[in-house]
């Protein structure tokens, strides 16, 4: 690791900065020293410049003029730094940026390595080192183990494969993979692969990445715009040699950053200068507009190769850069990369040498076919030629350059070698300084995003330009120091080109994939398909028929003695009670020709009263009525009262209802088996001076149906999805064995909450449902309700979260006391967490209030758990409604049925997707019924009052 002391550099020195370590005077000064002795005279040979050779002083001018073009001033570097920073921040804000700016691509790598990663991984590297791909076997030993040297093999990619059909390239990669694995003595089951793919890609996950555009000499067809992981998976499948799971696709800069030696890092910037160039860094997630994250960091691949703000780069681009770009595979693109990347440096040197040769300054004014052919001077050549600038034996150095130039068919004059070396130095120095300007922009961005004045940061470096041109790094460091003086930067060379880093990311991806698999395994039973829902519909239909016939059925199909929905002629003032939902309400309902006016008050029924004695409960109810009457100035008035009592009652008449069993957390004693109207009247009797005329007892489903039926006479079904769930509907009296008469209709309270208590739902019940049921005050009862309604969904979710935590999938496996607390995860959290407008960060806020230590992946998984539980609930509810409306349609022998369903209940009303899913399931299972769902505005209290009004009207008519 190389650290440069601050006082080492004075500003005016920066511009002179050039690749001449060891105190050589700067090139420009050198130029003066070239002088006349350096240049030979030669006339008229083929490929030689026809124009007379320039005199020595002219040629040095020409060389100076040439190399001067590669000089980038500090001001220009600062401008590039500023412009690049501007374009980075614009892209982060998701503001459309000009095509040629930096891309700032999220990589879904959210943290630098914990060092806990373990296992054997295969790494396939494509694109980092140009015309070769590398396969590695990396063993990660976690925190304990020592570092195992990866095994690797490099394969040269034939040019026709780099430019041919994409399938050919990926088949070639899959072939290399098998060849490498064939040679390995390891056990090759369940291979986990990390794919280092060094090109600009839109990632949508650790293992989903779409190629934006090829760079660096690659130009395969049918790949841009496609998911490269899928292309690789398909190729491995076609190869059929090994079953390999591709867990992650990683940009080489990310592999480099993640491969940073533990103990010296963590590196938070990855910088690659190989055939191409790019950098990545850890950005605050909240600054990345495309990600709805407000916590933690995410690694961003800058893709600075495409930076080309003509304003600042224009003056720096030389004629050689333009020539190189024109001849390149992607003219106009990657302009910044073409001044820094190893694939281009050799070419730039070649173009300069050819130019100088044609101007008679070099090689006696003679070129050679090799010098004139593109790509004849490679990065390694430049490295060798530049490296020899200060070897232990300068002569040896010059001789080496000589030899290299001769290999290019050039006749090398005395000073040509040194001149060529200066050309190499100029091209490389500029590359290093431009790279420094870009890195300085990244460092400034890090300072901004972390609001830090002084930034101490470790930068992992990778790529053959670093490996082959040691002075590249020193120029880079010095320039970074000048451009980002407030950053204390340590450069950490990556040990194996990032292979370990890719394996680290793959390990994280494999862990996340394993978590995802466990999540899917636990949620799969909640994902009901069409056949399962149709089976529920059919079973419910069968249970309805049996219940109506009075045969054994989990559906009691209780007659309610409501024979008609309101016809709008009802009139008068009525008291109504609404017990059984979230709130207990007392209502005054005034029914006039102009409509219904409701005044109501909500009262609480404390748990100890709901689970105390029946007398206590009904006395509490009467207390509330008296309080309400006083407040409404109704004291002493005996208004007809309708009692919405939302529990299973066998009604013997409109005002007689025997409570069959409590549900929804109620268990007041001495009530089951009792006529609750009597219990109410007794409580009224216990209270002096109170007179109430209890006319009707209705179930909340009936009250809801009536309430909506007042507005829409087609409303013949009532549905509650709240604390509990249930439905009622208008059945043909002839089908109701318990009630005499064959004509007309009777509203049936299905009490579908108990559906499945006979085991008919056991195939669908999960272990989580069983946990919730066992912990409830009525185990074995209300099976359907416990899979659907608000009192239980939160608990089902909590049990799933406990299981996933115990599996280490969530909350890093830490079981918290809070999460083990019953009812701590309210069903309303599902509605909040699943609301589209809620970003993941708000999901996290809800969960953090529960004291759950979570990562963003956790929040995403909790969201999926909530979605699976509520979706199943809505679909089961939809299957129930489909059974009811189909029954009505067939009752009436109709081809098509148009019917409305009155609905109430907090879950149905507040959950963002529940109602839509119910309607979609009904459409799917009862396509011949056009069903309109009417959300009841006034609750079932109004319905109870209307039932009372109808009863009073009928009683009135009976009396006259
Ligand atoms: C409001 C109705 C009431 C019913 C309740 C159900 O007026 O009769 O019991 O909806 O919804 P919950 O309050 O249980 O969510
Ligand atoms: C690619 C980058 C890559 C860089 C270094 C560029 O051409 O666009 O994705 O990181 O080369 O290999
Ligand atoms: C009760 C029903 C009621 C439903 C909705 C169930 O627990 O048994 O009578 O309609 O909850 O409140």
What is the radius of gyration?
40 Å
End-to-end distance: 106 Å
Assigned CATH architecture of the largest domain? 3-Layer(aba) Sandwich
Count of helical segments? 32
- How much of the polypeptide forms β-strand, as a percent range? 15-25%
What structural class do you assign from the helix and strand content?
A: alpha/beta
Query: Mind summarizing the main beta sheet?
Result: 6 strands, mixed
Morphology call? elongated
Which sequence of strands runs across the widest sheet? 1-11-10-9-12-13
The CATH topology of the largest domain, please?
Answer: Hexokinase, domain 1
What is the number of beta strands?
A: 26
Low-pLDDT windows of residues: 1-44
Description:
The strands form six sheets. The chain has a six-stranded mixed beta sheet, with helices on both faces. The N terminus is likely disordered. Helix content is 42%, strand content 17%. With 960 residues, it is of the alpha/beta class. It folds into three domains: 209 residues, Hexokinase, domain 1 (3-Layer(aba) Sandwich), CATH 3.40.367.20; 163 residues, 2-Layer Sandwich (Nucleotidyltransferase, domain 5), CATH 3.30.420.40; 305 residues, Hexokinase, domain 1 (3-Layer(aba) Sandwich). It contains 32 helices and 26 strands. The chain is elongated and about 130 Å long. Strand 6 and strand 7 form a beta hairpin. The chain binds 1,5-anhydro-6-O-phosphono-D-glucitol and beta-D-glucopyranose (2 copies). The site of one beta-D-glucopyranose (BGC) has 18 residues, from helix 23 and strand 23.
């Amino acid at each position: 690791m190389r650290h440069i002391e601050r006082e080492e550099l004075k500003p005016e020195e920066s511009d002179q900065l050039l690749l001449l370590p060891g105190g050589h005077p700067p090139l420009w000064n050198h130029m003066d020293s070239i002088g006349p002795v350096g240049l030979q005279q030669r006339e008229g040979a083929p490929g030689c410049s026809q124009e007379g050779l320039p005199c020595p002083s002219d040629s040095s001018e020409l060389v100076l003029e040439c190399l001067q073009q590669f000089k980038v001033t500090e001001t220009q570097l600062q401008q590039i730094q500023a412009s690049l920073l501007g374009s980075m921040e614009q892209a982060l804000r998701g503001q459309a940026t000009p095509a040629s700016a930096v891309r700032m691509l999220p990589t879904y790598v959210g943290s630098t390595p914990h060092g806990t990663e373990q296992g054997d991984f295969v790494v396939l590297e494509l694109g980092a080192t140009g015309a070769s791909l590398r396969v590695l076997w990396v063993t990660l030993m976690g925190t304990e183990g020592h570092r195992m040297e990866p095994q690797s093999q490099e394969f040269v990619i034939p040019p026709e494969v780099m430019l041919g059909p994409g399938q050919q390239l990926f088949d070639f990669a899959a072939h290399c993979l098998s060849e490498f694995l064939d040679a390995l003595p390891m056990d090759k089951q369940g291979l986990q692969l990390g794919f280092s793919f060094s090109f600009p890609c839109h990632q949508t996950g650790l293992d989903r990445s779409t190629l934006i555009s090829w760079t660096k000499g690659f130009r395969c067809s049918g790949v841009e715009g496609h998911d490269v992981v899928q292309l690789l998976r398909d190729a491995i499948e076609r190869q059929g040699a090994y079953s390999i799971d591709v867990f992650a696709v990683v940009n080489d800069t990310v592999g480099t950053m993640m491969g940073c030696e533990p103990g010296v890092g963590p590196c938070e910037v990855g910088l690659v200068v190989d055939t191409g160039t790019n950098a990545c860094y850890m950005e605050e997630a909240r600054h990345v507009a495309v990600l709805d994250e407000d916590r933690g960091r995410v690694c961003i691949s800058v893709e600075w190769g495409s930076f080309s703000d003509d304003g600042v780069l224009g003056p720096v681009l030389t004629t050689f850069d333009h020539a190189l770009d024109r001849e390149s595979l992607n003219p106009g693109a990657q302009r910044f990369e073409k001044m820094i990347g190893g694939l281009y440096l050799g070419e730039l040197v070649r173009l300069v040498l050819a130019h100088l040769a044609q101007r008679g300054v070099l090689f006696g004014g003679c070129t050679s076919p090799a010098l004139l052919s593109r790509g004849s001077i490679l990065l390694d050549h430049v490295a060798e030629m530049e490296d020899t600038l200060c070897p232990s034996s300068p002569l040896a150095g010059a001789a080496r350059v000589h030899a290299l130039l001769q290999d290019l068919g050039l006749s090398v004059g005395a000073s040509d070698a040194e001149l060529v070396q200066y050309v190499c130095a100029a091209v490389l120095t500029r590359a290093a300084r431009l790279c420094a300007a870009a890195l300085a922009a990244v460092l400034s961005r890090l300072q901004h995003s972390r609001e830090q004045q002084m930034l101490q940061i470790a930068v992992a470096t990778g790529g053959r330009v670093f490996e082959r041109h040691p002075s590249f790094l020193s120029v880079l460091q010095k320039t970074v120091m000048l451009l980002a003086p407030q950053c204390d930067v340590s450069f950490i060379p990556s040990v194996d080109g990032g292979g370990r880093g890719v394996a680290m990311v793959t390990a994280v991806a494999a862990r996340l994939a394993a978590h995802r698999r466990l999540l899917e395994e636990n949620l799969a039973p909640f994902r009901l398909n069409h056949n399962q829902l149709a089976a529920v519909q059919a079973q419910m239909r069968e249970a309805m028929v049996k219940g109506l016939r009075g045969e054994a059925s989990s559906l009691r199909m209780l007659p309610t003695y409501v024979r008609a929905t309101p016809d709008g002629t009802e009139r008068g003032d009525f008291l109504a009670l609404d017990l059984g939902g979230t709130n207990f309400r007392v209502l005054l309902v005034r029914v006039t020709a102009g409509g219904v006016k409701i005044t109501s008050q909500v009262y609480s029924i404390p748990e100890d009263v709901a689970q105390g004695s029946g007398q206590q409960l009904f006395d509490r109810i009467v207390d509330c009525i008296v309080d309400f009457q006083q407040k409404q100035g109704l004291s002493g008035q005996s208004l007809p009262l309708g009692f919405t009592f939302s529990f299973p009652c066998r009604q013997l008449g409109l005002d007689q209802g025997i409570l069959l069993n409590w549900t929804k957390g109620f268990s007041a004693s001495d009530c089951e088996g009792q006529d609750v109207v009597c219990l109410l009247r007794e409580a009224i009797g216990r209270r002096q001076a109170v007179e109430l005329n209890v006319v009707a007892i209705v179930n909340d489903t009936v009250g809801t149906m009536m309430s909506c039926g007042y507005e829409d006479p087609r409303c013949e079904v009532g549905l509650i999805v709240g604390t509990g769930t249930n439905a009622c509907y208008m059945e043909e009296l002839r089908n109701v064995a318990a009630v005499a008469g064959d004509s007309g209709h009777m509203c049936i309270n299905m009490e579908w909450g108990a559906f499945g208590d006979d085991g008919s739902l056991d195939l669908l019940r999960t272990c989580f449902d069983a946990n919730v049921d066992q912990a409830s005050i009525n185990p074995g009862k209300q099976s359907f309700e416990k899979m659907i309604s608000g009192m239980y969904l939160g608990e089902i979710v909590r049990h799933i979260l406990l299981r996933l935590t115990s599996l280490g999938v969530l909350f890093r496996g830490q079981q918290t006391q809070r999460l083990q607390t019953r009812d701590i995860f309210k069903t309303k959290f599902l509605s909040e967490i699943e609301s589209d407008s809620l970003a993941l960060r708000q999901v996290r806020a809800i969960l953090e209030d529960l004291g759950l230590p979570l990562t963003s992946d956790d929040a995403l998984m909790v969201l999926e758990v909530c979605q699976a539980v509520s979706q199943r609930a809505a679909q089961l509810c939809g299957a129930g409604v489909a059974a009811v409306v189909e029954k009505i349609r067939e009752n009436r022998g109709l081809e098509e049925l148009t019917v409305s369903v009155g609905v109430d209940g907090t879950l149905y009303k507040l959950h963002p997707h529940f109602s839509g899913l119910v309607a979609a399931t009904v459409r799917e299972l009862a396509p011949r019924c056009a069903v309109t769902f009417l959300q009841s505005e006034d609750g079932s209290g109004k319905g109870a009052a209307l039932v009372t009004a109808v009863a009073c009207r009928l009683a009135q008519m009976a009396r006259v």
